[in-house]
Design goal:
This protein has 356 residues and is of the alpha+beta class. The protein has two domains: 126 residues, 3-Layer(aba) Sandwich (Creatine Amidinohydrolase, Chain A, domain 1), CATH 3.40.350; 213 residues, Creatine Amidinohydrolase, CATH 3.90.230.10. The chain is built from nine helices and 19 strands. The protein has a six-stranded mixed sheet with strand order 4-3-2-1-5-6, with helices on both faces. A three-stranded antiparallel sheet has the order 7-10-11. α6 crosses α7 and α8 runs antiparallel to α9. The two termini are 43 Å apart. GO terms for molecular function: aminopeptidase activity. Pfam families: Creatinase_N, Peptidase_M24.
């Protein structure tokens, strides 16, 4: 983890935004820049220095482990406003950028009232867009645990079991295999509930003749995986089999097209046009995918009309789906690393329809 080069990515924003400092408050960026994953504390990066501002719970850890940050102890008496104002005075700072999407209105109001400089909001989401080797290895490990969990759960599902039981078993197995926890609330949607793209696991009983969509992920060393598979329990109606095959084909074609230089809008259209030609365009209502890393949904969005270009080192999801109200649904999702030669799948569970 080369924190110095990551900090320089932030300093590159100084010229773009004509500023002398940037204040980081989001847990994801504090971890990315300072190896601190907490809702508490701040990182302040200036032209001359970088400060990790934490309370007593983290101070000794930061002081002992960080050699590139100046640790600053925050307390009731020495609050964040006093600390930043001292740094403003010491370094002659006139303008500070902050993560506007990450703080509350009340906190912004306090900053505006108490900090002795101009403030402006900026978006740092792009700094994590290209993954380094350590990040890729952690995502690969999270994907491997997710694949193992899927292979385990297909032997667990049976007629009469509830969606909630499937979720609980997935979470148990993920932790047993070394995952810290799930990346997000696990989705298990069977039968007509499969038409709910984000149908979290319920007490519904899974029955023979239904499709079951499972969307889950693993957090490993604070990096995420995100996989979706749809399986059949017993013999399903032909309509469901047909939409499964259509979604599978659309996803495969999009993965083939995931190459450096391709726009995300074009990649989205690769899958979307296949589903539209199959007659189900209006039943595919979400983006084709999203970035993946410390957060399960990161920049960039694999969305219609996006001009963002795929670059070597990006990790994205490709997850087309069809959702038919009152009937059921299908989604198949892969985690894809963009390499010089094209997209490489980091999730390797079978895409072909498994009948249990």
């Amino acid at each position: 983890m080369d924190l110095k080069s990551r900090i320089e990515r932030v300093r590159n924003q100084f010229i773009v935004h004509d500023t002398e400092a940037i204040l980081i408050s989001s847990p994801s960026n504090k971890f990315y820049l300072g190896n601190l994953y907490s809702s508490s504390g701040y990182i302040l990066i200036t032209r001359r220095s970088q400060y990790l501002i934490v309370d007593f719970r983290y101070y000794e850890e930061v002081k002992n482990e960080s050699c590139i940050f100046e640790p600053v102890l925050m307390s009731k008496e020495n609050n964040i406003y006093k600390i930043i104002n001292l740094i403003i005075l010491k370094e002659g700072i006139k303008r500070i950028g902050f993560e506007g999407q990450e703080i509350s209105y009340d906190l912004y109001s306090e900053f505006s009232k108490l900090l002795k400089c101009e403030l402006f909001s900026l978006d740092l989401s792009k700094i994590r867009m290209i993954k380094d080797a350590d990040e890729i290895e952690n995502i690969k490990a999270a994907c491997k645990i997710a694949d193992d969990a899927f292979n385990h759960i297909v032997g667990f599902i049976k007629d009469g079991i509830s969606e909630r039981e499937v979720e609980n078993e997935l979470v148990r197995y993920i932790k047993q295999r070394g995952g810290e926890k799930e990346s997000f609330d696990t989705i298990v949607a069977s039968g007509i509930r499969g038409a709910l793209p984000h149908g979290k696991a319920s007490e519904k009983t899974i029955k023979s003749g239904e499709l079951i969509t499972m969307d889950f992920g693993v957090r490993y060393k604070n990096y995420c995986s995100d996989i979706t598979r749809t399986v059949a329990l017993g013999t399903c109606q032909e309509l469901l089999i047909n939409i499964y095959n259509l979604v599978n084909f659309a996803g495969k074609e999009a993965i083939k097209g995931a190459k450096p230089g391709v726009t995300l809008g074009y990649l989205d259209s690769t899958a979307r046009e296949i589903i539209e030609k199959g007659g189900y365009g209006k039943y595919f209502g979400h983006n084709l995918g999203h970035g993946l890393g410390i957060q399960v949904h990161e920049y960039p969005a694999v969305a219609p009309n996006s001009d963002e270009v795929l670059i070597e080192g990006m990790v994205i999801t490709i997850e087309p789906g069809i959702y038919l109200p009152g009937v059921g649904g299908v989604r198949i999702e892969e985690d894809i690393l963009i390499t010089k030669g094209g997209g490489v799948s980091l999730t390797n569970s079978s895409r072909e329809l498994i009948t249990l």
